[in-house]
Amino acid sequence: MQTWLTIEEFCRLSGKSKSEIIKLCKAKELKCKKSDGTVFIEIESLANAIVPVEELKIIEKNDDIAQRTIGMLLTLHEKVLMSKDETIEALKEENEFLKNSIYSIQEVYEDSQETINRLQKQLEICQNELEFCRKKYKLMWGRVLKREEEKEE
């Protein structure tokens, strides 16, 4: 049973660019077909795309199980290295995103602190004005009460 992948999926799995894969298809090194404007590549061709041709020829020439095993181990090792590099790149991007987020949060925090300080100063000024008005009110009503008392006497 043959399994077919789109060229984009095949690019992702093999680590090759789209142009390299198209060249390999034209050279008949990969089995490919076109259906509804989409290029499909046979999955068994993935080994041809990942393992260098020289290594494949060595594996095909010798029926020695050790060499086949070594060839497959090299292939797996290369896949692991590609995955490791992709993972490292993804982690670097995530770290960069988190660092930028922390900087943004710090800026918002500093702006909030400035706003809080400004509002506290305004509140203090308003409280002072209110206290002044209270004293003035008491003083004014105190004079009015004294005048009223004087008039009554």
Can you give me a brief rundown of this structure?
78% of the residues lie in helices and 8% in strands. The protein has 153 residues and is mainly alpha-helical. The protein has a domain of 50 residues.
Shape from CA axes?
rod-shaped
Q: Whole-number average pLDDT?
A: 82
Low-confidence stretches: none
What composes the largest sheet?
3 strands, antiparallel
What portion of the residues fall into strands of 2 or more residues? 5-15%
The SSE string, one letter per element, is: EHHEEHHH
Gap between N and C termini: 121 Å
Radius of gyration: 40 Å
Structural class: mainly alpha
Strand order of the largest sheet: 1-3-2
Q: Count of DSSP helices?
A: 5
**Number of distinct beta strands:** 3
The amount of helix comes to: over 70%
Task: Walk me through this protein's architecture.
The protein is mainly alpha-helical. It has a domain at 1-50. It is 78% helix and 8% strand. It has helices spanning 7-14, 18-26, 46-50, 53-61, 65-152; strands at residues 4-6, 32-35, 38-42.
